[in-house]
Specification:
Chain lengths: 515, 538, 397
């Protein structure tokens, strides 16, 4: 005899946990099923070599929505909360960025950056407001709430004032490269900012709408970087605790096999192990493609919908490298005390663009753009005493590698990445004692994300707001009674933000109230 | 000092259209042109013996029929003849034909994939839906979303209503269509690489974007929304070459009493007491008029022909940041006879259409990578036509004129000017690609003219020789075109107007910006609006 | 590689050589790339042949798909609005399929050939849509349009002719049944279906045997009044039977550009084809909404007073003035019913059975155009609906 729940959340990623916790708080009897043995989905800390741990995917926290923290009363212990960025140059000349200040550049650039940052954070604040709402449905017969929602959005945009509103409407579709080239002489500054705009996407700095992806990055904490103590599991463990505190049952090692559907309505979830949990509501934290194509199955879906879901672009491009080091490497011109910062290898926007070129043809970048962090510098719990971890996000490594992902292609790419870093850290290779490279194919397999895409779907204007994950399903509700989506594939998108989870929970509760 | 009611700067098709409407309304109008020929890029040039080259734009479809009819261009000698079909040559010796006949087109696509052949119908309907939507706005002035004027609110509401009218599903489709890349858009319909490659060309012609760049799906519209006699999406040749359009417009203009002066380049647009006062020609002559309409692109207008002190700084900077990128070149060739294309069956109608030589999406995108690297595509996307097959007037009997539009070709090579040698190599690149499929082609060449964006800029004046007077990216469309807050054809100085393709709805021989600007001018002068309204489609 | 160009002209059906021999009119039009005859001798003669004896109509250009695989039934059941689980092997189902918005993409007949094997036959082509509908299903869809030809034999003597042809057991074939019969030593598939609303059959065979079939059929039918029939005559029979035609009564949803031009099955009077008890089929949600909130349009059969054919006429709720409430889609004077009939589409709430509407007819007599407002009654039943259509075994002639 199976157990009955008010709702079952599939996937204990951060969004699933946020959603579960909020639903639990509202009094629902909740079950969370997690395929892996550890809660957190891709937002986890894992031991990749004996004694060495690292956040598996995202390693820095910058998008967690204050509303989420507030609603759940989260207390996230941070190892560091004011991490700056060093854009690495050759010959010991680097550019240092922190908040609205930048050093290592001309006076003009510094001033211009301050203006740029001010404008960008202002625009990102506007977006953030909307990121914490359910997007409106666009229709002649849209509800009053939807109309108000749109009016509010229009009002918010207008409130920017005439000039800024014009800038907003112009910039939102633009590429970051043009804006950076117009503004900054410093190539290291342009490189670092352009990498920020394209991290985790299938876009290059010249691709239109990379300003939007840049704003997206800022739309949490203005780009302020922090490092959770003990890695990302700090965040998801806290969320799991919050969910449990609100009565949710979390069962790990329980992969969902299918969502049980009967007569067009959700009845529960069947696990890979054959166990069936009954519930009239299922909230999926899995990506929309996996949810619809695998868990629901196309037989339960109408063809137009299936066709649209099958067109969601979610081919990951970011790989994650973890190196166990017997000591910190040397970087010319970087003081030992600066190793807690974030390092970026993106000498200019052309470098990033060229790295992207390869991804278009199913190749890995010859010269990848890399974001590096030494988490152990601030958090000694992650490695044996005196030892260190290098955690790097590497772009571009396309999920659809033409040659196919294998141990050979993975090793070859790792060599490319290490070689690239060695240009800046000459003694790096000699310090490596163990390593792990997660390609998008690995991420897909280990974290059950279709295409290994961190955002559960490309973050681009055509898969954004009203058309995320697809037009008509932007309100978290899927076209099967009782089925909801709460993962990064839903509005507003990926990143450790908790926003989709929170919005979904609110949409569910609102719908129940009105029903 | 001579004086007029209005001076139009530049006798391209938009300048002439604007001038014609102003003259028709009864104003005393002067149109000045820097070259000794009119038309700007809408021109036929006799550069070699008895050949007439449509040496810039070479086909005609977008010209608004409302204007065609209204300005009596037919009476003034314009005749547009449709042509159909074309082929993409494939590296394996096969080809993909595009046929005017619906069923034959289906069969040809079905040769590669039945699903694609079916999907083409849905694709056509979906693109037509977008065309229909945008066509409503071609002869309208975009609203200013930052304004609270009743006129703007009304126009914004009209736009919203037309959008909502499409229905929920179509609204989402529309959002996606406007923001997607042409490659992704085509991926949603087709599975065959060569079919996608063939259709994707229309998404990048004239733009500094690749087929994978978001926003290029929209560019498709600029190649589909035209028509010849109600056949939407059809293309045609102006008899006598593209210059025939400008000729007819100028005759129309002069029939309304307008005055046209060539070899009269404008040095500066004069401003007195914050108002336009007239123009100073490069000859030193000054002509006064309370209204000056610039048909030049915005960069030429404001950065070259105006005193910076007369302009607001934000405005000035925005003009500077307006993107006009040279991305296309042109190779015009006089031929001793008709080249053969052995891959195509003898007598095939495909021989009369346009020809393309890139057969995969990867080659399309790689062509763009070269441009990004600051050089011309080594394996370019060429749109090759032989207008003389349809219009024998352009060359002596039995001889031919070939027009090759080449994407991509930068305005500068790695940031510096082109050398003569590079220009020659660029020409060779084009010739070689065609010669791969036409063994006798090289021997038939009598004369050729290689035009890079900088050649076009030098001759016609368009910044970087951009065929649209500015990129057709989301940030430069509708109320953002050319500059947010200045999308209603009025310049930042009283009496100054803009009527070129930098303005809504953009480039191509459409004449809509010229006509729309005339409407705004007449409104400001409180004269009756004599510009035509959309024929309508429902 | 040298590639031959696709056929630039019209395809000829495998029956074409025989059709060309008998053709006296030289009036052909295009039907999905094929040459199809408007008529061969005289439209009236051909029409009366199908109502009085038997007309043979070449249906080769119809699009035909073979659908097989373990999920074939699931695929079809989700695709169309009606319940395919009820269609047993040996049965044929008339069905419509919709997009998610509940708009009709096309209608057609689905032949359940044997367990797990179907043939779908429709006017339009649908490979792209079917492929999308097959995502995640184990089903194979093959376009067999160019391999299989078909001949419809329609009219009161059609049964006798097939009997004469030697298809033993044909007397047991019920309406919407299909069976394979021995024809000169090999199989021929016959279904008791058609487009005339009368007793009739459709014969399906591979192209190579087309001429053999034609000759045998005309030989068998020579004493039963068999006559080849063109599209014009069929069109009359089609309207009398009250059947829909794509591009007349509805547009395939994917081809519409303007909002609101597509039609739902409910609007086309095909609610009997929609089985809402099925948990999932394309358009279900939208159609449920429509059922709840009401349809915008309604397809009506009109019995119009007088004898002036109501081609392209506007329909009004009142005789004098007011706004039109719809328009006629197909119209004719029915020679067998002696009725002035039409199919039309009207806005709800107009168009209930028994409603009196007014039709504005323009007609010409000796170059002069006149206009008349004719009263039209909305009727329920097909205009032509003889009992012989249903009886099994059919009465011999």
């Amino acid at each position: 005899m199976s157990e009955r729940y008010d709702a079952i959340v599939i996937g204990a990623g951060h969004n699933g946990l946020v959603c579960a916790s909020l639903l639990g708080k509202a009094g629902k009897k909740l079950l969370v099923l997690e395929a892996n043995d550890q809660v957190g989905g891709a937002a986890v800390t894992r031991e990749f070599a004996e004694g060495y741990s690292s956040s598996a995917c995202a390693h820095l926290l910058y998008q967690l929505q204050p509303q989420v923290e507030k609603d759940l009363g989260l207390k996230i212990k941070l190892a560091a909360d004011d991490i700056g960025t060093l854009s690495l140059g050759t010959g010991g000349e680097h550019v240092r960025i922190n908040g609205d200040t930048v050093s290592g550049v001309s006076e003009d650039d510094a001033t211009s950056y301050r203006e740029f940052y001010k404008r960008m954070t202002r625009f990102s604040d506007l977006l953030r407001t909307y990121f914490n709402r359910t997007p409106a449905r666009l229709a002649k017969d849209a509800s009053k709430a939807d109309m108000l929602n749109l009016a509010q959005l229009g009002f918010d945009v207008r409130r920017l004032g005439r000039t800024e509103m014009q800038e907003f409407l112009r910039l939102i579709g633009m590429n970051i490269r043009d804006e950076l080239v117009e503004r900054f002489d410093s190539s290291l500054l342009r490189g670092a900012l352009s990498l920020d705009a394209v991290l985790g996407t299938h876009l290059g700095p010249r691709s239109p709408n990379t300003i939007l992806t840049y704003l997206y990055r800022l739309a949490g904490q203005h780009g302020k970087l922090s490092q959770p103590a003990g890695g990302m599991s700090m965040v998801t463990d806290a969320l799991a605790q919050s969910a449990r505190g609100n009565g949710a049952v979390i069962r790990t090692g329980m992969a969902a096999k299918r969502i049980v559907i009967d007569a067009g309505r959700v009845r529960g979830v069947e696990t890979q192990g054959g166990e069936i949990f009954e519930s009239n509501m299922v909230v999926s934290n899995a990506d929309p493609v996996s949810t619809m194509m695998c868990l629901v199955g196309t037989k339960n879906l109408e063809t137009g919908f299936t066709r649209r879901v099958s067109h969601i672009r979610m081919r990951g491009n970011a790989a994650k490298l973890h190196l166990a080091l017997d000591g910190l490497p040397t970087i010319d011109g970087v003081h030992k005390r600066e190793f807690g910062e974030r390092f970026v290898i993106a000498p200019d926007e052309v470098y990033v663009e060229r790295a992207f070129n390869h991804a278009k043809y199913g190749e890995t970048s010859e010269k990848p753009a890399i974001e590096i962090s030494f988490p152990t510098f601030r958090d000694t719990s992650l490695a044996p005493a005196g030892k260190h971890v290098l955690s790097a996000i590497v772009q571009y490594a396309p999920w659809e590698l033409r040659a196919g992902w294998s141990d050979e292609t993975r090793d070859a790419f790792q060599q490319v990445v290490v070689d690239t870093m060695t240009d800046y850290m000459p003694d790096l290779a000699g310090r490596i004692t163990a390593s792990e490279l997660l390609t998008p194919a690995d991420i897909e397999k280990q974290f059950h994300i279709n295409g290994g895409h961190w955002h559960h779907g490309e973050l681009a204007l055509d898969q954004f707001l009203f058309t995320r994950p697809i037009g008509g399903s932007q309100q978290y509700r899927m076209p099967i009674d009782g089925l909801w989506l709460c993962g990064a594939g839903a509005h507003p998108g990926g990143g450790v933000s908790g926003a989709p989870g929170r919005n979904a929970a609110r949409a569910i509760l609102k719908q129940e109230k009105s029903a | 000092m001579k004086s007029y009611d209005a001076i139009v700067v530049g006798a391209g098709h938009n300048g002439l259209t604007n001038a014609a409407y102003l003259a028709k309304s009864g104003l005393n109008v002067l149109c000045v042109e820097k070259n000794d020929y009119i038309g700007g890029a809408t021109v036929s040039r006799n550069l070699y013996k008895d050949w007439f080259y449509s040496n810039c734009s070479y086909v005609c479809s977008l010209l608004r029929p409302e204007i065609y009819r209204d300005l009596e261009l037919s009476r003034h000698g314009l005749q547009v003849t449709p042509y159909g079909g074309g082929a993409v040559f494939m590296e394996n010796g096969d080809f993909l034909g595009s046929y005017a006949d619906h069923e034959v087109h289906y069969r040809e696509y079905a040769r590669f994939s039945k699903a694609d052949a079916d999907a083409y119908e849905r694709y056509s309907a979906d693109v037509m839906r977008q065309c229909k939507f945008i066509r409503e706005f071609l002869l309208r002035t975009p609203p200013d979303p930052a304004s609270f004027k009743p006129k703007d609110l009304k126009e914004l509401a009209y736009l919203g209503a037309k959008f909502v009218e499409m229905g929920e599903e179509r609204m989402y489709d529309t959002i996606r269509f406007w923001t997607q890349s042409v490659a992704e858009y085509l991926d949603e319909y087709f599975e065959t690489d060569v079919i996608k490659a063939a259709l994707s060309g229309s998404g990048i012609i004239g733009t500094a974007l690749g087929i994978h760049s978001p926003g290029t799906a929209y560019v498709l519209l600029h190649h589909y929304m035209g028509e010849v006699d109600g056949n939407i999406g059809a293309w045609g040749y102006a008899r006598g070459g593209t210059g025939a359009v400008a000729e007819a417009l100028s005759k129309s203009f002069q029939s309304y009493g307008g005055e046209l002066r060539t070899v009269s380049g404008v040095e500066q647009i004069l401003v007195k007491n914050g108002k336009t006062a007239g123009v100073a020609l490069s000859t030193g002559e000054e002509i006064s008029a309370p209204i000056v309409v610039s048909a030049m692109d915005v960069k030429n207008t404001f950065l070259k022909c105006m005193d910076k002190n007369d302009l607001d700084e934000t405005f000035y900077n925005r003009v500077k940041n307006f993107k006009i990128r040279g991305s296309s070149g042109k190779v015009n060739i006089a031929l001793d006879g008709r080249p053969s294309f052995p891959a195509l069956p003898k007598g095939s109608p495909l021989l009369d259409g346009d020809m393309h030589f890139i057969d995969s999406m990867e080659r399309m995108e790689r062509a763009y990578d070269d441009w990004k690297d600051g050089t011309w595509s080594k394996d370019p996307y060429i749109d090759m036509v032989l207008p003389t097959v349809t219009d024998p007037t352009m060359a002596p009997p039995g001889k031919h004129f070939m027009s090759c539009f080449v994407q991509y070709c930068p305005a500068k090579i790695e940031g510096r000017d082109w050398t003569e040698e590079e220009k020659e190599q660029f020409g060779e690149t084009v010739i070689d690609q065609i010669a791969q499929y036409s063994p006798d082609f090289k021997d038939l060449i009598l004369h050729m003219e290689v035009r890079t964006p900088s050649t076009i800029e030098d001759e016609i004046g368009i910044t970087e020789g951009n065929i649209f007077h500015g990129e057709l990216t989301m940030d430069q469309l509708l109320f953002n075109r050319p500059i947010p807050g200045y999308a209603q054809y009025r310049g930042p100085v009283g009496g100054l107007y803009m009527c070129g393709s930098s303005n809504h709805p953009g480039g191509g021989i459409m004449a809509a910006p010229g006509c729309n600007a005339a409407r705004e001018i007449l409104t400001d002068l409180k004269r009756p609006d004599i510009t035509p309204v959309n024929f309508g489609d429902d | 590689m040298t590639v031959t160009e696709v056929d630039l002209g019209r395809y000829q059906s495998p029956f074409y050589p025989r059709q060309a021999e008998i053709d006296r009119l030289n009036r052909w039009h295009e039907w999905k790339g094929y040459s199809s005859a408007d008529g061969f001798y005289d439209t009236t003669l051909e029409y009366f042949a199908t109502r009085n004896s038997a007309g043979a109509f070449d249906i080769t250009p119809m699009t035909k798909y073979r659908i097989t695989g373990p999920d074939a039934l699931d695929f079809l059941d989700r695709l169309v609005t009606r319940n395919m689980r009820k269609i047993k092997p040996g049965r044929v189902a008339y069905a419509v399929w919709c997009d998610d918005g509940g708009h009709v993409i096309d209608d057609g007949t689905i032949f359940h050939l044997q367990e797990g094997e179907y043939r779908l036959c429709s006017q339009e082509r649908h490979m792209a849509w079917f492929k999308a509908a097959a995502i995640g299903m184990d089903v194979t869809i093959v376009d067999e349009t160019e391999e299989i030809c078909g001949l419809a034999l329609q009219g009161p003597t059609s049964f006798s002719i097939l009997n004469e042809l030697g298809l033993s057991g044909i007397d047991q074939l019920r309406p919407f049944g299909l069976a394979n019969y021995d024809f000169n030593g090999t199989d021929i598939m016959v279904s008791r279906t058609g487009f005339t609303g009368d007793l009739g059959y459709e014969l399906w065979i591979t192209n190579d045997r087309a001429i053999e079939l034609w000759d045998a059929l005309f030989e068998a039918g020579k004493h039963f009044g068999i006559m080849a029939m063109g599209t014009a005559a069929l069109e009359h029979a089609r309207i009398e039977a009250g059947f829909l035609a794509p591009f007349e009564e509805f547009l395939p949803a994917h081809t519409t550009v303007r909002t609101g031009r597509a039609r739902s099955p409910l609007e086309l009077g095909l609610e009997w084809l929609v089985d809402f008890s099925k948990p999932c089929f394309n358009g279900r949600r939208a159609l449920l909404d429509e059922k709840k909130n009401g349809s915008t349009w309604r397809l009506v059969k009109l019995d119009i007073e007088g004898n002036k054919e109501a081609h392209q006429a506007f329909i009004f709720p009142k005789k004098n003035g007011g706004k039109e409430c719809g328009f006629v889609t197909s119209a004719m004077w029915s020679p067998v019913c002696k009725q002035n009939i039409a199919l039309g589409t009207v806005r709800t709430p107009h168009g209930n059975v028994g409603d009196k509407l007014w039709v504005e007819i323009y007609y010409q007599r000796e170059m002069h155009w006149s206009r008349v407002m004719a009263e039209a009654t909305v009727v329920d039943k097909p205009f032509w609906d003889p009992p012989r259509k249903r009886s099994t075994p059919p009465e011999p002639y």
